């Protein structure tokens, strides 16, 4: 929830503050977030004090990618910082970038890049909260202090644990083992609106289906 003024009152004006509610929290079927006529508010350049993005000071990701760029980002408070080595993130980026409407992603507003583990270094991992749900094959992470969603960690399974899963589940777990998907909204200086993100309909395709609280 937000309470404040989108347009600040003029000097001397007595203006009631506005209440804002995050429409991503409403139950499925009540609000179609992707279908809403959203207006964009440029808070980055209009809100004071000006925000200084926390800097990543860790080591460079090991991945070797021709013509790669080093992107850095963080949660809001700076307890978690991240580096992502990737081909240039712009409209010509040909690998998959996606928003997902599954029960969890739609609430957090992620814009996913499906990066490999070797492309990503996270500093401040001890400050990551972890949330496991659904099929319990992955966990979504977020900063424990400021709550900003960071990435998806693919969980490790032993041979014995894999052996008791269905073949379909096992194949999926093995196929994603090398990935470390990152929320592109945390990257400094990157406007996710400049990217060609596809829309993945996770709500209707991911199992088990979600029971709305
Ligand atoms: Zn934080
Ligand atoms: Zn999702």
Quick gist of this model?
The protein is α+β, with helices and mostly antiparallel strands. It has a single domain (2-205), classed as Metal Binding Protein, Guanine Nucleotide Exchange Factor, Chain A, CATH 2.170.150.
Please tell me about this protein's structure.
The chain has 213 residues and is of the alpha+beta class. The protein is 13% helix and 23% strand. The strands form four sheets. The chain has a four-stranded mixed sheet, with no helix packed on it. The radius of gyration is 19 Å and the shape is globular. The mean pLDDT is 93. Bound molecules: zinc ion (ZN) (2 copies). One zinc ion (ZN) binds at residues 100, 102, 104-105, 202. Residues 100, 102, 104-105, 202 line the site of one zinc ion. Residues 71-201 form the CENP-V/GFA domain. It comes from Xylaria multiplex.
Distance between the termini: 19 Å
Query: What is CATH's topology name?
Result: Metal Binding Protein, Guanine Nucleotide Exchange Factor, Chain A
Helix content: 10-25%
Second CATH tier, the architecture: Beta Complex
- Give the ordered list of helices and strands: EEHEEEHEEEEEHHEEH
CATH class: Mainly Beta
- What is the structural class? alpha+beta
Q: What bound compounds does this protein have? A: zinc ion
Keywords: Metal-binding, Zinc
GO molecular function: carbon-sulfur lyase activity; metal ion binding
Protein name: CENP-V/GFA domain-containing protein
Organism: Xylaria multiplex
């Amino acid at each position: 929830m937000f309470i404040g003024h989108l347009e600040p009152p003029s000097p001397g004006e007595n203006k009631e503050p506005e209440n804002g509610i995050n429409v991503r929290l409403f139950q499925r079927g009540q609000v179609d977030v992707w279908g809403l006529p959203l207006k964009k508010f440029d808070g980055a350049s209009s809100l004071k004090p000006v925000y200084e993005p926390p800097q990543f000071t860790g080591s460079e990701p090991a991945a070797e990618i021709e013509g790669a760029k080093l992107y850095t980002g963080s949660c809001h408070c700076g307890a978690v910082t991240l580096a992502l080595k990737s081909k240039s993130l712009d409209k010509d980026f040909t690998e998959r970038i996606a928003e997902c409407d599954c029960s969890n992603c739609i609430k957090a507003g992620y814009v996913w890049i499906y990066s490999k583990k070797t492309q990503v270094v996270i500093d401040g991992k001890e400050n990551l909260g972890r949330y496991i749900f659904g099929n319990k094959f992955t966990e979504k992470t977020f900063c424990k202090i400021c709550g900003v969603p960071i990435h998806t960690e693919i969980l490790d399974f032993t041979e014995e644990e894999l052996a008791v899963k269905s073949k379909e589940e096992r194949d999926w777990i093995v196929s994603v083992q090398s990935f470390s998907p990152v929320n592109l909204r945390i990257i400094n200086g990157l406007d996710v609106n400049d990217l060609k993100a596809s829309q993945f309909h996770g709500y209707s395709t991911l199992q088990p289906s979600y029971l709305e609280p």
